[in-house]
Each structure stands twice: as C-alpha cells, then as structure tokens.
Amino acid sequence: MAWIYLAIAVVFEIAFALGTNATRGFTRLWPSVFTLLAAAGGIFTLSLALRTLDVGVGYTIWTGLGAIGTVILGALIFHERITVAKLVSFGAIIAGVIVLRLTAA
Fold first, then answer.
1. Phi and psi angles of residue 27, each rounded to the nearest 5 degrees, phi first
2. DSSP readout, the chain?
3. CA within 20 to 30 Å of 55's CA: 1, 28, 44, 91, which one?
4. Residues 6 or more apart from 20 whose CB is under 8 A from it?
5. b/e string for 55-90 if b means 16 or more Cβ within 10 A?
6. 40-66 pLDDT, tens digit each
C-alpha cells in the first residue's frame, strides 16, 4: 500500500509544480488554491507512504519522479524544451528509482 500512496503523492507533486507556474507568483486565486491543495495532498500521501518506506527512499522517489513528470508535462503544456541533457538526466533518475524500488524492503 505504501507504493500506491507514493504514486499518488507523485501525482500531487507534479500538480503542485505545474500549478505553481500557473499562479503567476500566487497572484491568481484559483490556480493558487489548486496549488496549495496539491501541495497538502502530496505531503499527506507522502507521509502515509513513509509509515512503511524509509524516508530516504520515499522522498527520493517522490522528488525524482515528480521532477520527471513536471518536465514532461511542462514541455507538453507550457512548450518548454526537452534537451539531450534532460533526457540523460531522466534516464539516471529512472535508473535510480528502479534500483531503490528493487532494494527497498
């Protein structure tokens, strides 16, 4: 169940990051409300995952997959560029997540 909570937390993390961009410095009400709710949801579900998972494993996967999702969706939604360096970095993050998942109890 911890991995399901962590997956949900990753979705909230991505929503939080993308929402932060849409707030325009927290000057827009509804994107700001969305962003704050996403942040709260992410922290809450991460805390549920960390009941079982080591904090180092859970937090690293949460931020790593959140970063990858944010960059991919940022490219799709906000037309941000994905460079070769970003792709190599994604590969390193994904490899790290796989190793952490395989070695986590």
1. -105, -5
2. -HHHHHHHHHHHHHHHHHHHHHHTTTTSHHHHHHHHHHHHHHHHHHHHHTTTS-HHHHHHHHHHHHHHHHHHHHHHHH-----HHHHHHHHHHHHHHHHHHHH--
3. 91
4. 35
5. eebbbebbebbbbbbbbeebeeeeeeeeeeeeeeeb
6. 999 999 999 999 999 988 999 999 999
